[in-house]
Design goal:
2 domains; 120 residues
């Protein structure tokens, strides 16, 4: 990952973007990161949107913390628990985020990213 001190930036943004290749450019001010120019060459917009989503970041951090504590389950354990679970009523109970929640967040963040990138 390349870095560029903001006060030393002398080229138009388009030049920096065309020089990226598949890398990213972190822009700093007084040696502190303030922005990043990210290449989409080897990435898709959904991945970028998820990476920028604070909500998705919390999900990942929570999952990593649980895995670190040994709170992991085999696929067989998950399937057995799902098949043995009683059917829930139509009133949605407060529960941990699941796969469909992550997909919903991904779609929402991807749309937000696309709207922001076309507005610029």
């Amino acid at each position: 990952m390349k870095t560029l001190e903001l006060r030393k930036a002398s080229k138009p943004l388009a030049d920096y973007a065309s020089d990226l290749g598949s890398d990213s450019l972190v822009i700093t001010s007084n040696n502190k990161p303030v922005a990043v120019l990210v290449s989409l060459k080897d990435a898709d917009r959904e991945s970028i949107a998820l990476g920028l989503s604070p909500e998705f970041g919390r999900i990942i951090r929570r999952a990593r913390a649980e895995a670190k504590k040994g709170k992991v389950f085999s696929l067989k354990q998950v399937r057995d628990e799902i098949s043995a679970a009683p059917k829930q009523s139509t009133a949605r109970a407060k529960k941990p985020l699941g796969h469909s929640d992550c997909r919903r967040i991904c779609r929402r963040e991807s749309l937000r990213f696309q709207q922001n990138s076309t507005a610029a």
